[in-house]
Amino acid sequence: MNPDHLRKSSIEIGRIYFWTAIINKWQHLLRTDSFKDVIISSLQYLHTKNLIDVFGFVIMPNHIHLIWRINNMNGKESPASSLLKFSAHQFKKMLSSHELSNYKVTRDNKSYEFWQRDSLAIHLYSPEVMYQKLEYIHGNPTTERWSLVKDTCDYVYSSASFYEKGSKRFTFLKHIGEEV
After folding, report:
1. DSSP assignment of 9-56, as one string?
2. Phi, psi at residue 176, to the nearest 5°?
3. Distance (Å, rounded) from C-alpha 39 to C-alpha 34?
4. DSSP state letters, 92-119
5. Residue 166 phi/psi, 5° resolution?
6. Quick one: which of 113, 64, 70, 75 has its CA closest to 91?
7. pLDDT attached to residue 7
8. In the Cβ-directed half-sphere of 177, how many Cα atoms lie within 13 Å?
9. Exposed, middle or buried by CB within 10 Å (0-12, 13-18, 19+), for 26?
């Protein structure tokens, strides 16, 4: 991909965003729960350090959607960068050399790229837009394209059951209703 065509999404500290990160070449790296758990661990860590608030999420086979707020930088980098960098290091450790070849790149600063370089961040400027995006991400696993579950609450790697059933499985979640 030509770097001139990358989306120029940025995140301001203290604002709530709908954020999407995509696995390189739309590969289904996140189809396995152990890879999804890496994302969960990173979100939990960033939350524990009070760097982020997560209001909603879904981890799909080849992308993730978050509704979140960045509260502080993680040293010199944003928590979004930390999430992508940490997960990439973990993915590299978890994959066989054969599987790693799918993510091989020729760059001066790295040999593998697990995430596309064009994460999308959209500021959520009203309660209506926040709830619309929340409904969208919760519905992802039930769409005809994915058909991962029939009921949104049955998909484990999502905040749907937090909102629908009060599940406390993911302690990093904060209810969007507390913000609007």
Report:
1. ----TT-EEEEEEEBGGG--GGGSHHHHHHHHHHHHHHHHTTSEEEEE
2. -65, -25
3. 9
4. HHHS-HHHHGGGB---SS-SB--B-S--
5. 75, 20
6. 113
7. 52
8. 4
9. exposed
Q: Which residues contact 153 (CB under 8 A, 6 or more apart)?
A: 160, 161, 164, 165, 167
- pLDDT category at 5 given cuts 50, 70, 90 is very low
Q: Is the pTM of this model over 0.85?
A: yes
Nearest Cα to 67, choosing from 140, 147, 167?
140
What is the percent of the chain with per-residue pLDDT over 70, rounded to a whole number? 96
Assess contact for 33 and 151: CB atoms under 8 A: no
pLDDT at site 8: 54
| Beta-strand pair 52-59/63-70 | antiparallel
pLDDT score for 138: 98
Q: Is the pLDDT score of 153 beyond 60?
A: yes
Whether residue 2 has pLDDT greater than 70: no
